[in-house]
Amino acid sequence: MATNSKQSVHMNPGQGETSYAQNSALQKTAQDRMKTLIEEAVTGLCTSSCPHPKNMVIADLGCSSGPNALTLVSAAVDAIHRYCAQHEQLPPEMCVLLNDLPDNDFNAVAKSLDTLKHSVDEALARPTAVITGMVPGSFYERLFARGSLHLVCSANSLHWLSEAPEDLKKSRIPMHDSDEQLRSSRHQIVADSYARQFRKDFMRFLSLRAQEIVPGGRMVVSLLVKRSDKPDTEIIQPWTPAVTALSDMALRVS
Ligand SMILES: C[S@@+](CC[C@H](N)C(=O)[O-])C[C@H]1O[C@@H](n2cnc3c(N)ncnc32)[C@H](O)[C@@H]1O
């Protein structure tokens, strides 16, 4: 998948039948698998920082909207509370920041962030603070102040590239050709180009976050991958007509 932050690309907003909020159970499964890693990252952060940090900044990159937008940051907040309760420490002041592209449904995110703030306040019988904020922009650009983040999370988002590979755009080679023969003869060129673009984008993502994360900070990310570059016929086959139409539309606007 390729996006350009200047383009209007976003998951379906709102709460309706076709919204991302109502159609993201699969992604939620991937997020749930990350909870143990987030717990480990929090334990690592709390045990390695001496003195105990007075504040912690947690960010989710590519949060989208709906229930998934809060899953990872809530897991981190809960893990910090658990760690502090077990070690009889006061929880640090926490700041939760949610990022996505500017056309994301941030109105819905704002409402759910308010719930997060209050549910934490109510659950604890002592004063605690969760400061919340939204950071619209591309994670392929600088988003946060230098050395400000303690924990960065991201689920199901980093396979969105910053753009389609330049060489394919120049030679007008679509990601998915409707002509089956052309598609299979160009398969390797297309796969290699997308792999190069991913490497370039991912390196950029890492070097930007390296500037924004505090020394000893942690990052927990998950993204969709394939184990081999062979076309996945079983997965692709049912989608072929849709992929062909989308590819055709993308070629017309590029
Ligand atoms: C499949 S959704 C995943 C949402 C959520 N993290 C989850 O696991 O359900 C991918 C999200 O990444 C966002 N995204 C894609 N490229 C991005 C970029 N360059 N910067 C920030 N967000 C991006 C999309 O707008 C979309 O909301």
TrEMBL record:
It comes from the Eukaryota. InterPro entries: MeTrfase_7, MeTrfase_capping, SAM-dependent_MTases_sf. Keywords: Magnesium, Metal-binding. Pfam families: Methyltransf_7 (PF03492). GO terms for molecular function: metal ion binding; methyltransferase activity. PANTHER family: S-ADENOSYL-L-METHIONINE:CARBOXYL METHYLTRANSFERASE FAMILY PROTEIN (PTHR31009). This is Uncharacterized protein. It comes from Oryza sativa subsp. indica. The lineage of its organism: Eukaryota, Viridiplantae, Streptophyta, Embryophyta, Tracheophyta.
